[in-house]
Amino acid sequence: MADHLLLGIDTGGTYTDAVLYSETAGVVARAKALTTRHDLSVGISGAVEAVLEAAKAPVSAIGLVSLSTTLATNALVEGQGGRAGLVMIGFGPEDLKRDGLADALGNDPVLFLPGGHNVHGDETALDMSALDDALPVLAETVSSFAVAGYFAVRNPAHEERVRARIREVSHLPVTCSHELSSKLGGPRRALTTLLNARLVSMIDRLIGACEDYLDRRGIHVPMMVVRGDGALIAAAEARLRPIETILSGPAASLVGARHLTGLDNAIVSDIGGTTTDVAVLDGGRPKLDAEGAVVGGYRTMVEAVAMRTFGLGGDSEVRINDRGLKAKIELGPRRFMPLSLASALHPDAIVPVLERQMRAPHAGRHDGRFAVRTGVPERLASGLQPQEQALYEKIGTVPLPLEGLLATMLQKVTLDRLVARGLVHICGITPSDAMHVLGGQGQWDATAARLGLEIAARTRDGSGRPIADSPEALARVLVDRLTRQSADVILSACLADDGAGAIDPVHSLAIDRALHRVPGIVRFRIALDRPLVGLGASAPVYYPAIADMLGAESAIPADAGVANAVGAVVGQVRTMVTVFVTMPEEGIFIVGGTGESARFIDESEAFALAKERAMTAALTAARINGADEPAVTFTEEIDAPEVEGRRKLMEARFTAIASGRPRIAYES
């Protein structure tokens, strides 16, 4: 049998990467194309066609396609996503105050319905009259729904009934909390469900774009998506639970880093256009976050690698605070479209405006910045306020200078809301532009980058002096700032992993002196106990200096720029199912999870059914997710303390994990 090729695709905020991988020869070919948010299939097809050409391989040689992405992670970090309606069953308004749920909800609508269950799965009557009254209007103003029921992990019946009613009336996507987690903690489960609902349309568009392209090219093979813990799931399942793809790209990069470097113990830092993702490899495996992934400041219930994601990348917004005697520059957390990239995409729209702004005797507040639509489907712009709609209609598919778009501070706030909805990009200077000025990058328009930095360099600080003498001087400041902020976030992640999360390296004099080798009577030094693996297309540019600042050995693999795509094709399918047994009263045992609750008067019979349910469900899920020959491991935890000399069952948890390599399609 021929050695079939595996196609790995990683769609990031700036680039879409593709690799062809052989299980005997490793990476056969690699290629990149710009991520095209208005039509994701354009970037996907560009990268895949380029990698097929580089390998001189026919499409018939491909036996599996696997996709990883940072789009979901980026959206949560930047506060983006579609407008979602949250339906809470059995909860009250006071529950919004827990786990950051109210903050995450923002201005999105929420409904509270009577109903829900108790810890043993017994119900309180469900009343959907408020839902029936609100649905006709809600269906026109949101793009998806999230449904969270009280103790739905023990009995999902009410969530399922509400989902059926919403689909019947609105025909919109609906996410139920019991589909995402079996853990208790209603408000955090509701938060996870809300974030999932916001991401549905984005991940659906990505997977759909990839599937449409593959179909056009005659590539009819299994398609997988990388989950946040590095495991693979079938594309159809990822469409239903896109929240599981948060940290998909970073998880794939960890798997890829281990594969490419052979290091068992390392700090892995992946810098992209929007984010820097930091995680630890221990004993050849990525550490998992038992409490759930934290992204964009929100603690979710998604099992994922213990990755810390920071809004810092090559395309980060440059924020200049000129109010003090000496100007301060910070990067991120928002992503801007670099001026060099905007000019490469729109050759006549950027440079003439920048040249005119340079000739002006005085700098304008919005000089060097533009707005352009992201190109997402119009239906995702539903529910805009009148002032948002009016501004959105002024912005087109060609970048428009902010100086002619914004007349008041209120309009600037409105623009920021459009950016947060993922409807508009702001174009401005970024570290990527700085690298174009310094010669470290050259794939886009260096003229636009230089003009943008020249305009920004004219900004005066509190003493009345320009913040930089030249574009080159400002470019070096921005690169140095990225190096320092990268060292800060890597060190912060490592300290948190060591259990010293309260230490803030940004405000610690000792750490600051150690990073900069400041001499003194007391000398401070910092060193990592393992190599720093730098990943990302720009890793060779930035990470030697970052590793040196942190006192670490720098390890940058040859395929650092496509590590995510490599990780996407070397992973495994892995599914986990937990079934519970509780004793609500003496001699009565309730089996809950994976279906209807079952009641027994014999503990051993309840335990036997729980084990059977867990193993059957895990194997079934693994096969649905594309595993070829899944194997099962099994664990049980029984909490049954002695109370007054008698054993009392509090809860028993039976967990089955099924894993295996995905099926590969072979031509006959």
Write the layout of secondary structure elements.
Blueprint: E1 5-11, E2 15-22, E3 26-34, H1 40-55, E4 62-69, H2 71-77, E5 84-89, H3 101-105, E6 110-113, H4 129-141, E7 144-149, H5 157-170, E8 174-176, H6 186-216, E9 223-226, E10 232-234, H7 235-240, H8 248-261, E11 266-271, E12 276-282, E13 285-286, E14 288-289, E15 294-295, E16 298-299, E17 304-305, E18 308-310, E19 316-321, E20 328-335, E21 337-338, H9 339-345, H10 351-359, E22 370-373, H11 386-394, E23 400-401, H12 409-420, E24 424-428, H13 431-438, H14 446-457, H15 471-497, H16 509-515, E25 532-535, H17 539-549, E26 554-555, H18 563-570, E27 573-585, E28 588-592, E29 598-600, H19 603-624, E30 631-639, E31 642-643, E32 646-647, E33 651-660
Parallel strand pairs: 1-4, 4-9, 5-6, 5-7, 7-8, 11-25, 21-24, 25-26
Antiparallel strand pairs: 1-2, 2-3, 9-10, 11-12, 12-13, 12-18, 14-17, 15-16, 19-20, 22-23, 22-24, 27-28, 27-33, 28-29, 30-33, 31-32
Helix pairs in contact: 1-6, 2-6, 4-5, 8-18, 10-14, 11-12, 13-14, 13-15, 14-15, 15-17
